[in-house]
Amino acid sequence: MKVGFIGLGNMGAPMAANLAAAGHAVTGFDLAAPCPEGVTAAATAAEAASGAEVVITMLPNGEILRRVAAEIHPAMQPGAVHLDCSTVDVDSARAVAEAAASAGLRAVDAPVSGGVGGAAAGTLTFMAGGAEDAFATVAPLFEVMGQKAVHCGGPGAGQAAKICNNMILGITMIGTCEAFALADKLGLDRQKMFDVVSTSSGYSWSMNAYCPAPGVGPTSPADNGYKPGFAAELMLKDLRLAQQAAEAADADTPLGLAAARLYETFVEQEDGKGMDFSAMLPRFEKRGRG
């Protein structure tokens, strides 16, 4: 398949490289990052999009996505698919899908889960929104870049699924870190705590697969000085997107709001920026109720 790929940062570069290694003809563009091996460099985003059957974007936010979409849609061939894998607000995803339809194109919003490691290994999970036929067109690309793709519904449904999932993740990680900090002060051994909770009703992905306590459970960023697998500032971005969507939809999300405020304090007022989102544990360890 002929693929344009715009946004070759930490996530986009390995995704594009995997597509090229699988035999797809990939032309890439990024304002700063170099093209990975096997990817042909374009001088502009529009050049990367020209003649492609699918154009993939992996961009930082909705404003940039809208701007890039306005640049690439006129260059895309009729019926081509704009596959956006960025994590952005639902309104931007739907606006880009509408713009694509107006230009005679198809669109799929498909944010990912799995981080840089999943991008490199080709084991990402894609949460996709858009028409069935557009999803079917890009499905072979999902098979190269990931291990699972779920068609969640119409335009914006992929972004909705991503922010709901990550709101749960932020809340459960905070709860897991709070519980470990409390267990410490109650004199409970961390391994014993893990042994109980990981096989009881308190288990979660945050505890069982990504334990925030060093030396406990499977290997996680906690065992590497909390160097990020998923950075705290990215969790803050997703929690803010969830709150933006909740306000627009008039949804009551008190724990989501509390999690967003905690990560905002951690990232912007404390030492959380550049740390893994599980580094909430050493934060709570140092704090008392005051």
TrEMBL record:
GO molecular function: 3-hydroxyisobutyrate dehydrogenase activity
Pathway: Amino-acid degradation; L-valine degradation
Domain 3-hydroxyisobutyrate dehydrogenase-like NAD-binding, chain residue ranges per copy: 156-281
PROSITE patterns: 3_HYDROXYISOBUT_DH
Domain 6-phosphogluconate dehydrogenase NADP-binding: 2-153
Keyword NAD recorded: yes
Domain of life: Bacteria
This enzyme's EC code(s): 1.1.1.31
Keyword S-adenosyl-L-methionine: no
Listed Pfam families: NAD_binding_11, NAD_binding_2
InterPro entries the UniProt entry points to: 3-OH-isobutyrate_DH-rel_CS, 6-PGluconate_DH-like_C_sf, 6PGD_dom2, 6PGDH_NADP-bd, HIBADH, HIBADH-like_NADP-bd, HIBADH-related, NAD(P)-bd_dom_sf
Catalytic activity: 3-hydroxy-2-methylpropanoate + NAD(+) = 2-methyl-3-oxopropanoate + NADH + H(+)
Keywords attached to this entry: Branched-chain amino acid catabolism, NAD, Oxidoreductase
Family: Belongs to the HIBADH-related family.
Full protein name: 3-hydroxyisobutyrate dehydrogenase
Gene: mmsB
